[in-house]
Design brief:
about 130 residues, alpha+beta, 2 domains, 5-stranded mixed beta sheet, 3 helices, globular, binds zinc ion, QRL_CxxC_CxxC
Length: about 130
């Protein structure tokens, strides 16, 4: 990955990424917090709520693509009840809890590395992406 940095237009923060076609673009695991794909929104019982996507994910050398939406502008999905939202939150917490150190990550931990958080996972293979 390049070490370049983009300025996030919606909050003025700087984050490692690139600008592609005028849009902040991040790798699969390196999107800034506060953004989610449509699928991640749905997993939290949310929907974009009429906002346009503000950034994009590109991975597998640009062959895979996903739009990123702002979580702070997302709305509860019309179909989700409070009970559904509570159980979604619990399920999300399990998926975000590192199996090694027990910390809760701000993102869902992938199953392929045994649901370890990034610091635990990278201390095992010792190489940074
Ligand atoms: Zn960990």
């Amino acid at each position: 990955m390049s070490a370049r940095v983009v300025r996030l237009p919606w909050n003025g923060q700087f984050w490692p990424g690139r600008v592609v076609d005028g849009v902040p673009t991040f790798g699969f695991r390196s999107a800034p917090p506060g953004l989610a794909t449509r699928r991640q929104l749905r997993e939290r019982g949310l929907c974009p709520g009429g906002q346009d996507w503000v950034a994009q994910l590109k991975w597998r050398r640009g062959r895979r693509w996903a739009a990123l939406y702002r979580l702070d502008l997302a709305q509860p999905s019309p179909g989700a009840t409070t009970a559904q939202l509570v159980s979604l939150e619990k399920a999300q917490r399990v998926l975000r809890t590192c199996t090694e150190c027990g910390r809760i990550a701000p993102y869902r931990l992938p199953r392929f590395n045994g649901r370890r958080c990034w610091p635990c996972d990278s201390s095992h293979d010792g190489e940074a992406a």
